[in-house]
Amino acid sequence: MRQRRAIAGLAAAAAAAMALTACGGSGGQSSGSASGGDGDAASAWALTGGTHEQIWKNSFDQWNEANPDQPIAVDWFANDSYKEKIRTSIGSGNAPTLVFGWGGATLRDYVDAGKVVDLTADTADVMGRLIPSIAEGGEVDGKVYAVPNVGTQPVVLYYNKELFEQQGLDVPTTWSELESAVDTFKAAGITPIALAGASKWTNMMWLEYLFDRVGGAEVFDRIEDNEPGAWSDPAVVKSLTMVQDLVKQGAFGDAFGSVVADANADVALVHTGKAAMLLQGSWGYGTFMTDAPDFVADGTLGFAAFPTVEGGAGDPSAVVGNQSNFWSVSSSSSESAQTSAKDYINSLFDDDYVQAMVDGGDIPPTTGAEKFIKGSDQEEFLDFGYDLVKNSSSFQLSWDQALPAATSQTLLDNIQELFALSITPEQFVDAMNATIQ
């Protein structure tokens, strides 16, 4: 992030980094002491990997240099290791001062349990720099409990332009065009759509968009609100059937169930010409930049919005994904540590930080970011993603973050079975209705 001084060398580091932080993540060990929030000094736990790690690391380094009387000690974790440790630490009252999160049901749980502090009065400056639909991801009941700390992450459709040109196809803008393209690529011996099915959450993105395109945002709103029988909505059954029809059509090939997203195998299928399309978050662009820079630089990588569904009730401008990642402040930390954390949060997203995100291919969550995007090496993608989010009618948070942890795991397991054709749409609906409290 920024802090009063330019981030020298960050652009080069970001461009060489791995993929951006996604819904899932690899395991791993902390690279630090994993100290909690005891004492007067502020602490933070952050995630390793990619452009985001580079930005956070430079941010904390520069904050500590500029504010020696308010230092923040940082420990680093892989995604899954962090998720396991933070639950225990929050519950025991030994969380770091800055709590990393995704918003959604977990943030509400923290708020309901009094584990994080109300930041509304202390973060007016930084919240005023953000696109409102992104900032809202850190709000609970109209109050701010978490502040975005990185770019916004919509899910988009990537495609190999060269393969489309070879088959005389345009990128599909409707579901029927998508089905037609699947048949064409399959006949040519090319996997139509890359899918890391072993990672579960990757399958989920197809249903997130289909629920919205078929029935509108209110379909999942009712599920999220725990309405009895909400999974029985006709739009749900239709979407489940559509995705199984796509599997049966051969859209994802025969081995998608063994492909793992953490290994970037789905991205590799596209840039090596073995698959034509990929539905992934904006973090996937960072993977393409790292693993296949020439594929990006020569314009072979294309990207588009998710297709519309003919006759569907959803607004085609709606997007799904992660509004951002967030910082909250632990209520178990000392008053002085909380003050340091709040001051740090309020210093985010100055010009240097926004520029660093743009240089790394990260979509800024701030208003007025066009001046940074224009003329950048990543202008085409960032302009597309920024407009997609800014003009969206709704931004649905990834389901595995929006729903409680126990429900999310049941959801992911059933989605995997749905894609494997081992359960019917009706069995999926019954299993998920049983999770509603």
From TrEMBL:
Gene3D superfamilies attached to this UniProt entry: Periplasmic binding protein-like II
Report the domain of life of the source organism.
Bacteria
The signal peptide, as residue positions, is 1-24
Alphabetically list the UniProt keywords. Signal
InterPro entries documented for this protein: Bact_solute-bd_prot1 (IPR050490), SBP (IPR006059)
Keyword Signal recorded: yes
UniProt xrefs under Pfam families? SBP_bac_1
PANTHER family, per the entry:
ARABINOSE-BINDING PROTEIN-RELATED, BLR3389 PROTEIN
What is the official name of this protein in its record? Answer: Extracellular solute-binding protein
Q: What organism does this protein naturally occur in?
A: Schaalia naturae
